[in-house]
Amino acid sequence: MELKINGKTVSIEADPEMPLLWALRDTAGLTGTKFGCGIALCGACTVLIDGEPTRSCSIALEDVAGDVTTIEALEGDDGALHLVQEAWIEHQVAQCGYCQSGQVLSAVALLASNPAPNDADIDEAMSGNLCRCGTYSRIRAAIHTAAKKIAGT
Amino acid sequence: MGKLLRRTFLWGSAAIAGGVAVGFYMYHTPYSNPLVADESKGEGVFNPFVKIAADGSVTIIVPRAEMGQGVVTTLAALVAEELDIELSDVKTEFAPAANVYYNRGMLEEGAPFQAFDNSFMAELTRDIQGVVAKFLAMQATGGSSSTIDAFNRMRMAGAAARAMLIGAAADKWQVAAASLKTENGRVIDAALGRSLAYGELVGEAVKQEIPEEITLKQPADWRYLGKSQPRLDMRAKVTGKAGFGIDVRLPEMLFATVRMNPNQGAKMTAFDAAEAEKVPGVIKVINLDTGFAVVANNTWVAFKAADLVKPEWAPSSYPATTDAIFEKLDAGLKAGGGFNMRDDGDAPAAIAAASGKVISARYSAPYLAHATMEPMNATAQWKDGRLTVWSGNQAPTSIVTQAASVFGLSRDDVSVHSTYLGGGFGRRFETDFSMLAARVAKEMDGKPVQVTWSREEDMRHDMYRPGAICEASAVVDAQGVPSVAFRAASQSPIASVFGRIAGAITPPGNDRTIVDGMWDQPYALTNYRVTGIPVYMDIPVGFWRSVGHSHNPFFHECFMDEIAHSSSQDPLEMRLQLMQPYPAAVGVMQAVKEMSQWATPLSAEGVKSRGRGVAFCLSFGTWVAQVVQVADTDDGIRIEKVWCAADFGIALDPKNLEAQMMSGIIFGLSAAIGQEITFNDGAAEQGNFDSYDCMRMNQAPKIEVRVLRASGKMGGAGEPGTPPSLPALGNAIFAATGKRIRQLPLSKDVSFA
Ligand code: FES
Ligand code: FES
Question: What is the complex's ipTM, to 2 decimals?
Fold first, then answer.
């Protein structure tokens, strides 16, 4: 099976029913995408498929119909970070860090569709991403900062 | 800070070596400094905490688990401060499991086993008991003792390396060491205007003697400490590069999962793996006696095949339902007895003799799972009779001890590589997930195997925060001072941990965690009794973020609120009065009073009503007061805002401390608004976030934190944010609605918006 992951065509040999998450982690070696619940309740496994935030634990390989973007692709080859990642660093968001790949990608998707989200928009877009370390205040602040950064470019 | 004598400096390793002072820097003994191998890579090993390469790059060894609390950055800053280097340039490595990294509180573990062949197990058990006792003592006096341990030791490690670098430069230039100074990784001879980079001095510097005396910097001269530092692990954590246990990848690695009897500890009496073995990609199904493992070519295949295995489970040895469990707790409470952890004056007599109104109440708290974001997992490999384990864990040396005991290995034949932890909260202090990986890998002919638990497996095989009940009674005298008596019954986490780690049932003395958060609070009352009643059952219970302080403050601080209201006192002012002899307590109470504008009445604009609640808890050496504000809305109770003031004594990294407080508060509120583990047929009924949710972004309140530094003694940070959050919420709901809720989770009585 061929998938487009982070701009590259990757061939994966696996059961077509296998969720994308495990193809990324156990087959393609992309461990930045995390396993948290397996049933689309925590957001740790969030990736973008054609820009849409998607819980990779709950989409079968055979149903993946677009380009997959994982956290690994947000950092440029030159080490340049996405503005959302920069805002995350500015606000020192991460604690244990386990949920953060999913948080960052959900935020990237939110800002792509809504460049100036208010708090209610942020709640709506981000409440599917659990953070057991409780970094919500800083995530919210970082999203507002990222929105300003993106508007300024 | 003044001078620290060599003896002080040597303290840790002197004790490890059985009373013989062999030196902090145990380079000359074969096993003591695990970094020695790095010397061949051209790195200068100054001591077990500091390596410097010829290019000047500095690697700091972090002997603690990074589970979100920022320990990598703070401990590196301790070394960098004294070594005089750029903090942002340092590299960090997690320490291997080795004697030199033993926490001061865990020294016994470093003692070599005595060679009594015929009583080896007894000796081992005694040894481990000593370890556990030490650990628990540390836990009970707070993270403070361990922080203070690192506070001195890591600074001394940096200062010692710096002195040796200066010594090497002094020899080279033939000048007095005292005439030299350092700056950003260079030794400088200001008089002659010359300097040498640390990298150029490494070769000679490591041969220098450890200095006899170390003078640490005065706090006024600190460049990093006391100021917020960017976390060294931040970039890795926003780019997906931080390596957690679940991210370990090794050549030829296999993927596996386990399914253990949900009646925890009981046997698997039979199993049929025929269907599972037919699944393409399945390599082996292994009988583990109390459950089974499926080894496959990826984790999902293992999960899927595990669903097809038909096991038969023996019943649990503990009461099979929540009702039956709480009946046992009730019976324990009714039977009387127990131990008085605090017994000032004679509270029962004062209450019995009272002419005024006696207030009494019964409180309860449920069992709770840790639900770390990263489910339990570990990777293991057996090669040439040696075991290597990779895992995100809070206690690498416990894994070594237990693996050596279970598999009959010498300690030197067990290596543990610690990774980042996707949350710990006390769950990863346990060794079960590492040991299961070792058992599975043992069947796989030298191949490394990663064993990942499903979320359901994780939640149903936790060492839970024990459920608890508490009876409280009080009378208030004419001056508004209460006489109070609390009696709390729960399982003993300490006894449970003992059973798992040492195979011993009897705990050493009274388990104070049963009443922590009630007996140890700074209220000056004449008649004050706090009684703990341990109730023994086999449900595994353990350390859940703040341990006994996670539920007892809910009992204590809500009841204090009841006392205040019943005697027409303001709950915050009453506490201020009763805490007069303790300035740090008064300080944080005053701070939240001001931050929350406590004295200004709230408007109920747009909602049915609003209310504020206050609570206090001293835990792990840190004094914390919180005010929670809620609104009663058509959709239920909305938690609008939390104000938190915390006195840490010494605040090494204020922004990180703020983060830890916020984290602890969200953790506590998550439990308060809905978490509960219930049992049926001996198994936990909740398995995933659909039945055991955590606070999410849309429910998270705004949180304002003030960091104070007045107590005079350094306190811990990871846990003390949690305890006051639950009672402050309960008290706020009372203020807003008049409804006094005495059972957790509060969602049993109100709904949350
Ligand atoms: S692992 Fe996919 S949402 Fe939790
Ligand atoms: S940072 Fe730990 S779960 Fe979000």
Answer: 0.98
